[in-house]
Amino acid sequence: MPIKTYRQAINEAMAQEMRRDSTVIVIGEDVAGGAGCDGDRDAYGGVMGVTKGLFPEFGESRVIDTPITESAIMGAAAGAAQTGLRPIAELMFMDFLGVCFDQIYNQAAKFRYMFGGKAQCPMVVRTMAGAGLRGGAQHSQNLTQMVTMVPGLKVVCPTNAYDAKGLLISAIRDNDCVIFVEDKFLYETSCEVPDEMYTIPFGEANFLREGTDVTIVGISNTVNKAVAVADRLAAEGISCDVIDPRTTSPLDEEAIIESVETTGRLVIVDEMTPRCGIAADISSIVAEKAFGALRAPIRKVTAAHSPIPFAPALEDAWMPQESDIEAAVRYVLGYKR
Amino acid sequence: MSLDKEQFLQAYRTMRTIRDFEYRVSDEFGKGNIPGFLHLYAGQEAIATGMCMNLDDDDYIVSTHRGHGHCIAKGGDVGDMMKEIMAKQGGSCAGKGGSMHIAAVEKGMLGANAIVGGGPPLIVGAALSAKTLGTDRVGVSFTGDGGSNQGTTFEAMNLAVVLKLPAIFLFENNGYGEGTAAGYAVGSKDIASRAAAFGMPALKVDGADIFAVYETCKKAVKHCRSGKGPIAIEASITRFRGHFEGDAQAYRGKDEVKRLMKEMDCLVIASANAIKKKLATKAQLSKIDQEVAAYIDESARAALAAPGPDVSELLTDVYSSPY
Known about the structure:
A: Rossmann fold; 7-stranded mixed beta sheet; 5-stranded mixed beta sheet; B: alpha/beta; 6-stranded parallel beta sheet; globular
């Protein structure tokens, strides 16, 4: 099977869906790049090159470069989705949610419900999240928790190239507004990805490692860190279940609860600030639904409650690291009542 | 081409329907038969009517929190609207929208929007669909003077110009954004010149004159359908009621509302002009008045008698598929 990067897998999902369905469009800032300039069109293909090649194939009516105007991009995508298109709107950095959130959570997310089931909003917001690139406080955040809490939205956090392709095809075909959170640390990672089209259903977790001592749940790239920790600890005879929920909305609660019922110990890792985050949410679900199975307190491994600092040493301290995950696993294993 | 006889009678009937609808819901609100908030369109009827008469069912509009008039003018079912506003079964939005989210999606009325300035970006999307899919549809965003100050509106106007989309930005300047004067809150000379600065033609019209509104909107729709990109209209008008029902309007001058209701009543102006132009007779108009009154009364009675929504519907239509 061919090996492809996360970037290639996402690009391929869009290209194949655009070939299959002429109502699928891509809209955003520099999704091609070079509009109105003297140099090349498709000069960027997205700031990370993820949409590269779509413009030459599909043209400017379906690969639409916009001004820097996030509210209008999201609103236009929502209005277009209500009237016959299936837009893939790019929100370059998830940090920019602040300047367009109304169009997502008050508009796109609510059309179907607010208008009594007579409207729909089949759009995808592709956005990039994740710290570690020294991007500072406004180009590094993962705000998955802010969209996960909104009824009407679905939220997808692919953690490898194979999942990215299948989940994005599902997102494009979905009739609701889907927020597709790409971890910018993963664009260069690769794995086997089939050439043909396939879908991965939402709300079905992926068990990356199976074990009996501790359950580790990770979101976005933190799940890959959890796998590395689990593999190291396996050499010591510590056996971890590592769960990638793949989507935070809907969330595969059953998979997590089933695992905790076996292991009795839970560590949740996310790269978000700790209050009201995904780790906090999963923690409350397990405390409510699997309290009796717990043999140790739930441990959350999250970022710090501060803006994301610029200096590498500070940013590294802000982010959850493998050593933090390992310490949490050892804590729950060693816990005595 | 101005309104002919038949068109005028249609326009008059629509304006009268909106007026009677608004006054009836005001009464029912006063009696406690309507939960929530109400923002009435009374006084502004000629604008929605004059624009929507130039549109087909498959053209799109988005509206504001003051949206009943736009919904009626675009062909929304009055009985279903009455039920929706009274939170009854059979309402246009199944009891999940209410007055501020009244919609007639099947008629291209994509929804009233309770976020001031929420609609203009959405109509850019509807216009983008029209252009991308190669239809000759147009999209109209009804926005107030208040919404004209929102950044979303600026972004929407700019993007519509950049992408050359068939979008009409219709600003209804009723003089007040909630309890603050447009003269204070709109920093530019007027709204039309601000819209023009984004790079589109902008027209101004007396919003109380159905003939003028109809003709101005006709030009705007023709401009859009012929692929020339977006266009703006500023219609000046007043509102007969407060920002919301129950608003004491202490910010308005002494006798201001009374005076404006006398000077700027689109129905009175339309009747006088039509009779003068021999487009209608007094008898024809009073027959319409009676028919509309009976229709509104029947709609209100049906809504009052209808049962409330089934609580089992709480979680339906959050998503398109089981969640």
